Amino acid sequence: MTPPTFFAVEYAINPWMDTSTPVDVARAVDQWQTLRDTYRRLGHTVDIVEPVPGLPDMVYAANAGLIINGTAIVAQFKHAERQGESAAYAAWMGQHGHRPVATRHVNEGQGDLLVVGSTILAGTGFRTQPQAHTEVAAITGMPVVSLELVDPRFYHLDTALTVLDDTTIAYYPPAFTAAARSRLRGLFPEAIEVASTDAYVLGLNAVSDGKHVVYPAQAAGFAEQLYHAGFHPIGVDLAELLKGGGSVKCCTLEVFS
To answer: Where is the active site (predicted)?
Structure first.
């Protein structure tokens, strides 16, 4: 995780960002700290990557890459405003025993590359290029399932789909093409389908350890669905960071080994 020390909405590269809306950095830091403390309270290790001035979106650590089995596939960002984050995160990855590897095509890390069991679900349509999916499959040796997004509010896969455990997901069907929905139904016939009310507060931008699901607190309906499915939902308010188009998962780069 990276603290939002330099968080700001200085440009607009997704529909959630409005440069005329003021940002309360102190409040953003407090909300981020609550998320960090929640993970620690659940027994998880949280490593901190130092923020870099001039990179206001660096708080969205999930986009930094995909770290799995000692290899770190470093993000290649679509927008120039975020490209400086790649070097900062690659340096941290290398210093912490992960082998940094670059793709030739645009990939935005765990924003669009979500591990479920032995498979990677890979988003495309707005940021990550489909050619990067092929590269990720070759680097990891894992099957990659491409899923096309069609609603710009859900510009990354992690805004429209949550991995809950090795066999279970939750997702918002209208965010995907008909072909992608068909793939998801075939792979996950028992998936939780989330309503618009929860999707529109980025309720699916959540993190699960297989039992506890840390989710944006405004997504009350999703929390109820999780409870009835046997998970333990834990709501965290990240409303200030939502102004940049991210929430719980966006702030969390998971390391898979």
So the answer is: 156 (proton donor), 250 (nucleophile)
Told to judge if 156 belongs to the known catalytic residues of this protein, a careful annotator would answer: yes
How far, in Å, CA of 96 to CA of 111, rounded? 21
Predicted TM-score (pTM) of the model is 0.97
- The β-bridge partners of 145 are 121
Active-site annotation holder among 98, 133, 212, 250: 250
Residue 240 belongs to a domain: yes
Check if 251 is active-site.
no
What is the number of domains present in the chain? 1
C-alpha distances in Å from residue 139, one per residue of 54, 67, 101, 119, 215: 31, 11, 8, 13, 30
Active-site option among 156, 228, 232, 251: 156
Q: What is the CATH number of the domain that holds 107?
A: 3.75.10.10
Domain hosting residue 88, numbered range: 25-256
Reduced DSSP (H G I as helix, E B as strand, rest coil) percent helix, strand, coil of the chain, to 5: 30, 20, 45
Q: What is the pLDDT of residues 74-130, one digit of tens each?
A: 999 999 999 999 999 999 999 999 999 999 999 999 999 999 999 999 999 999 999
